[in-house]
Amino acid sequence: MPGLIAVAHRLDLPSAALLVEQQQARVLLVDPLNHARVLHHPLPEPEVYTRVDPAATRAAAIDAQARALALSRALAPLLQRLAPGADVVPWSAHRFQQFFWTALGYRAVWQQATAELRPEHWHVLLPRQPHRYGAHSFVPGLMLVEQLRARGLPHTAYSFDVPTLEGSQLPDLRQLPGDVELLCHLPTCFHDAEYFRQELLASGLRCGVLSAEVYDVALEGLPASGLVDSAVVRGLLPPAALALLDELAAPVCALLRAHLQPLLLNANFLETQVQALWQALQAQGLLCLWLEQHFAGRLPRRLLLSNHDSTVHGALLSFAARHRLPVTMVPHSKVFNQPVFNSDGLQVQCLHHGLQDGPCVDLGGRALLAQRLAFPGAWQQEEVTAPRLATVGVVLNGLSANGVSLLNFEDYAAGLRQLAEGCRALGLALRWRIRMAETPALLLAERLGVPADDLFAGAQGSLLDFGRGCDLVIGYDAPTSGLHELLGAGLAVLQAEIRPLAGDEWSIVDAGVAPRMNLVELLARLRLLAANPAYFRDFRAGQHRLVLARQEGAQPLRHWLRH
Fold this sequence. Notes:
By secondary structure, the protein is α/β, with parallel strands linked by helices. It has helices spanning 13-23, 35-38, 54-80, 93-116, 139-151, 193-202, 230-236, 239-246, 249-260, 267-294, 313-323, 409-425, 441-448, 452-458, 463-468, 483-488, 503-506, 519-531, 533-550, 557-562; strands spanning 4-7, 26-29, 47-48, 122-127, 155-160, 169-171, 182-185, 207-209, 227-229, 302-306, 327-330, 349-352, 369-372, 391-396, 400-401, 404-405, 429-433, 472-476, 492-496, 516-517. Strands 8-7-10-11-12-13 form a six-stranded parallel beta sheet. A five-stranded parallel beta sheet has the order 3-2-1-4-5, sandwiched between helices. The longest helix has 28 residues, at 267-294. The relative contact order is 0.12.
């Protein structure tokens, strides 16, 4: 086998294109999602590693969360010197979890790939940037180098620069109104931004919106802080407070080194990563001090946060904990399918969609106060009638997380072929709904033996419009929160399960409403539904009654903010 250039991320592709010509090597993709992105570069058809063991990546995710919890708890006594209450408010826990997941997830993938592939030489791409949430880094490449060295395989590493999403900016508290009642910070809530905006305006509360450095969501008509460089914030704070923060640098960095060193064996890369994590903690420390100074004597009545900590949740929740301010948290995508990373004993009010499966929990796994949020939608109250089952739609979700493939793509495609063949045997028409940014459509079309245009056609228009063009919709593999809208509109939904799901996957849709079943059972169920129109109508109506029951007690956001 000729040399292989290992590509972990789309930002590796320009460098890979240069190496292909220089080294006469082939490109290796370990995330099938990058296959279509190769077409935008002068690259030949790549080799795609498609047989990732989902059990290995699932174990890596569990390990990553455990390590994030351990690091957060070890840091708590140090951070309490600056922010009383930090023992129940982990800072940067989500950032830690994402770092550990990237390292451990790629380690699992590279362990498999290097055991199976035998190129003459490995070419490893190493961005110079440390891991920061949402951006590419040297971590995936370092995990490959570790495996190659352990196996004694010939390799060369190449450094290059990639963009980063994060700088050193903080919400500018000076731009907020002087009498804020509700302090809001809602990064990543893109899909529900308009709903949240309308509810905040209707609440009658004086709101101040803290802008996010990354994944900011504009809420028109509400006063927003904008951003300011952390160096400016530093100049606004008293020397004694800054000295307290600066004294934390040495012990915090020592602790970070101890927790990261088992994964980052190279001292230079380790130190670069430690400094990046310290800088993020330091920025939160500046915000924590500034919140105390700015709101002294005029505290807000409540905090409203999204569950997605893009940068500064630790500082905000420490401020709330210190002053015993109630905290309401909304999901960035309908449900709390992951822990509230910045709570390890802090009680927050979690508002979620009624079709979430399972409780809302903190980083330590403790259940949090959870109540149902009335999202906008059809939510028909009448019984739904339906014709006989004739057309089935299949809705696909993403296959990877942070570039780490979550499953064996060959098994995934084989399951879809089995489903398609079974539907044809039953005389059922089949429609596909891919996720344009998260489905390797060309690879999948090749495996299914269908024109790629057939897959792209189903992705046009809204998911609800797609669902209304089907008699029954099947969510395939991991559920998607988009199924909530279909269920709310009275459409029939089943979930095809092809592997054991992780908690952040199965919790997205309540299995008590949309049953999950393997393909053999699913096809048997479809046979009954197709052959018995009355049974199909009863199933659809009964499922909709369950949907309505799950929304019992749901209230709009304005209600929860006033109570």
